[in-house]
Amino acid sequence: MSDSDLLREIAADVLTGATSENDPTVVPDVWPQMCELEWPLIGVAEEDGGAGGTLNDLLVLVAATGEHTVSAPLAETALAHRLLPPTGAAPETEPEAIATVALPSPGRPCHYRETPEGLLLDGHVERVPWARHADRVLVVLDRHVAVVTTRAAGWQVATGENLAGEPRDTVTFTRCTVPWADVVESPLAPDAVRRHATVLRSAQLLGALRAAVRMTTEHAGVREQFGRPLRAFQAVSAMITEAAGRLAGAESAVWAAANRLDHPDAEVDVAAARVWTGEAAGEVARLAHQVHGAMGITREHSLHHATRRLWSWRAEWGTAHECGDRLGATVLHGGADELRRLLTASEPGRNDL
Amino acid sequence: MTDTPHELSVLRHEVRALLDQWRAQEWFVPRCDAWLRGYDLDFSRALAERGWIGITWPTRLGGGARSNLARLVVTEELLMAGAPVAAHWISDRQIGPAILRYGSPRLQEEFLPAITSAQVMFCLGMSEPEAGSDLAAVRTRAERVAGGWHVTGTKIWTSQAHRSTHAYVLARTGAADPKHENLTEFVLDLSAPGVTVRPIIDMAGEHHFNEMIFDGVFVPEHWTIGEPGNGWHQVTEQLAFERGGPERLLSTFPLLHTLIDRTDPQDRHARRTVGRLAARLLVLRRMAWEIAAAMDAGAAPVHKAAMLKGMGTTFEREVVEAAGELLDTEPDPTGAGAARLLADGVLAAPGFSIRGGTTEILATIVAREEVRR
């Protein structure tokens, strides 16, 4: 058994049964246990205050939350820890504290300027995950990361949700000064932060794809109509195969992107993973519901725990559309030989298999 | 057998540089579906001289003793270039490996060095008029005679049979019930008495398909591949080689190449379309790589190969559709450049999801396995 398999089993022990109807007004029950196990600190070196392990380990856990259709601010808090320096700029926080990352969209920048006291923020960032529960909101502003806490005045949170009932809030800054003590130089360029965020969401999507495909194949094996299981119908076989193929591609794509986040071609692998997982999300959700029939669209059935997450997460932190656009630009500027190079430049290592 | 990343990279550059040179010298013009339609025996022999046919087979049998990853490197370079490789493709991909896996030492010595030197060219005798997707329904019979077998029956959809020296033949050697038993794989000499090869012209007006009629064709005893009666088991394993390779995603790469060359990066719709195609190709190619690596590890990833074939052939067709929409040209089979590539692609595309097992049959195989998990 590989380390990843072992980690996946541990995650299953923690997460099985943790799915619930999300109440965005409260922190999920499973979160304290995840923190006790230091999951949000995995992938940050121990000497930097982390829990050690690799980014891959973190992604295995993040994918597991998707697989068990659990909502928790793991990806967000872990990404925040990757951006914070070893000795926290923010006040000491509780081990269970939630941190989140506000990524202003390229089309709607959050205005800021430097003052003697700190960074003066004016504007808003939409769809910030878990902001209402976070005691630190890391706003990524070019090379700065403003760590917004209760020490700063002039910001407020307006609540919003995604389709899965997870908090996606709007954070508004009105002449909000973030003191220099709470401003850090980002160890990652803004593009790299966005790539990390995209891979984290892609790993969640991968997990939710696993869940939807598993439920669908199980259902097709046991549900009988016309005296035979659904899977015996060729039309249903085709749907299962389509869904399983999309999932297999997602497994390849997400780990390829994860392993190459520090590579000069990272943008390409991340974009490919996001296009694939984003397209797969829509197709697999459609197929899963079609195979489940009417019972799958009830609140009582558990399928929507997977599909509402698929529809939510595909729209967050990079979409197939945006990533396809960026990849298209790369390929068209570089020409077909550049595509040939990109296709064959990365020979996956044994760890990815 | 393993190759280091460096060794693979050296091999790739060697293949790519040579193909660039041969294309510049106009030895070949890139075509869609060239692994099935691009027949050039001299070209195959030039590859054979460099040791690129049977590259994974043992050296004592004329091979290169290299990994399946090395073979993937060679084949994907050939496919991306749209090079004429049909003469040796089936032998290298499928029949050589089948003989290596199940053939007697004598059979191996007789045929494998002849394949790697491009002296023997195999075609596939699987489908029959009454056995298409339902391959186990084959009716071609082999009757025992002194010193071997007499094969009688009809095979169909055999690409390049009219130019091949030998056929692989799946035939019935006992009762037809149960139908998966009593099947046997043979090597058959296409110049033997009793063989008739008739052309079938495809809708593009090309002759690559054939019908092969066997009327008591003698096959010597030692040209049986593996155990008589074990044919079904053997042939299903062969399909991992047939389905999991890069030719299931790169058949239309020359058209994609042209589409990229001729698309304006400022055109947002075109840019997104190309970007999404590139993303799918990057992922599918990685899956092909993983299949080759699994084969190097001794596995026969039949399930994953079937899945890849379904998705890969869909991708190949999507390239044709995108090119039809975005290229500022109409398909013209008598034209050159984009017009010709588009014409090739449009007319070849319906075959992609039929040959090597229809998408529908593959779906049955994959779904059965998925539900069993």
From TrEMBL, chain A:
Keyword annotations from UniProtKB, A to Z: FAD, Flavoprotein, Oxidoreductase
Keyword Oxidoreductase: yes
Sequence ranges assigned to domain Acyl-CoA dehydrogenase/oxidase C-terminal in this UniProt record: 201-310
Cofactor(s) needed by this chain: FAD
Transmembrane segments: none
InterPro entries in alphabetical order: AcylCo_DH-like_C, AcylCo_DH/oxidase_C, AcylCoA_DH/ox_N_sf, AcylCoA_DH/oxidase_NM_dom_sf
Similarity section: Belongs to the acyl-CoA dehydrogenase family.
Protein name: Acyl-CoA dehydrogenase family protein
Source organism per UniProt: Salinactinospora qingdaonensis
Taxonomic lineage: Bacteria, Bacillati, Actinomycetota, Actinomycetes, Streptosporangiales
Automatic annotation (TrEMBL), chain B:
InterPro entries reported in the protein's UniProt record: Acyl-CoA_DH_CS, Acyl-CoA_Oxase/DH_mid-dom, Acyl-CoA_Oxase/DH_mid-dom_sf, AcylCo_DH-like_C, AcylCo_DH/oxidase_C, AcylCoA_DH/ox_N, AcylCoA_DH/ox_N_sf, AcylCoA_DH/oxidase_NM_dom_sf
Keywords tagged on the record: FAD, Flavoprotein, Oxidoreductase
Cofactor entry: FAD
SUPFAM superfamilies assigned to the protein according to its UniProt record, in alphabetical order: Acyl-CoA dehydrogenase C-terminal domain-like, Acyl-CoA dehydrogenase NM domain-like
Residue span(s) of domain Acyl-CoA oxidase/dehydrogenase middle: 123-217
PROSITE patterns hit by this protein: ACYL_COA_DH_1 (PS00072)
Stretches assigned to the Acyl-CoA dehydrogenase/oxidase N-terminal domain: 26-117
Acyl-CoA dehydrogenase/oxidase C-terminal domain: residues covered: 267-369
Keyword Oxidoreductase: yes
Superkingdom assignment: Bacteria
Family under the similarity heading: Belongs to the acyl-CoA dehydrogenase family.
Official protein name in the record: Acyl-CoA dehydrogenase family protein
Organism: Salinactinospora qingdaonensis
Organism placement in taxonomy: Bacteria, Bacillati, Actinomycetota, Actinomycetes, Streptosporangiales
